[in-house]
Structure formats: C-alpha cells, structure tokens
C-alpha cells in the first residue's frame, strides 16, 4: 500500500506538467504527451504481467503442506487473472452505463421539458440504462467467487 502512496505525488506532478504543456499547444507538446502515454501503457502492461505471474505465498516451499497441495491444483496466476477480469467487468459496465445514462438522461430531460407528463416513462428508460452497471457488478461477484 505504501507504494501507491508514493506514486500519488508523481501523478500530481505529471498532471501539472501536462496542463503546462497543453498551455503551449505546440506540436512538441503533443509528441511529449504521446510519449508519456506510451510509457504509461507500457508500465501498466508490466504491472499486469507481474500480477498474472504472481505465485501465492502459501505455495512457497516453506508454507504449509496442505496449502501447497491445494495451490498446486490451480495455475499460478488464476486468482489474479480472475480479479483483474472482475475489475475490467466493473469498469467496462460502469463506463457503458455512464454513456447510456448521459444520452438517455439528456433526451429524457428534453422530452420532459415539452411534455411533463412523461416523467415516469422517461425515468424508467434512465433506470434501465443504470442497470448495465449492476450487470457488470454481478459478473464481477461471480468472478471473485471463482478466484
């Protein structure tokens, strides 16, 4: 956890530098931002590879024999990949729900400004759009249960 607290100032410094670079709006600013994005994606892919290749501590030779035998039944990165898949499911569903609510909400408000009596039907459509995030959460719970 201390690693993430140490990274927070770096994120703030990079964000401040990005805002300063965008102030110039030159072609060099775009190239620097593109290079920073490539570095960030490379770092996140390396972090993903480390998370998938991690071996549980109980499976180490010094661990309990029963835990080591149970850990041999599951591939080394299976638990980590299930958790990453759960995170992707929640993130994707939440982003999709955000877009859906944004578009249906604005359309519902526009329609209600002309005909206020359709409030109930408009809110049902917005509620259905929010259900997408709940589906992602259910999938994540199922995946975490399998981890």
From TrEMBL:
Residues 84-143 form the V-ATPase proteolipid subunit C-like domain. InterPro entries: ATP_synth_F0_csu, ATPase_proteolipid_c-like_dom, F/V-ATP_Csub_sf. This is ATP synthase F(0) sector subunit c. Belongs to the ATPase C chain family. Pfam families: ATP-synt_C. Keywords: Membrane, Transmembrane, Transmembrane helix. It comes from Pseudarthrobacter enclensis. It is a multi-pass membrane protein. The chain crosses the membrane at residues 6-23, 35-59, 79-110, 122-144. The keyword Membrane applies. It is found in: Membrane.
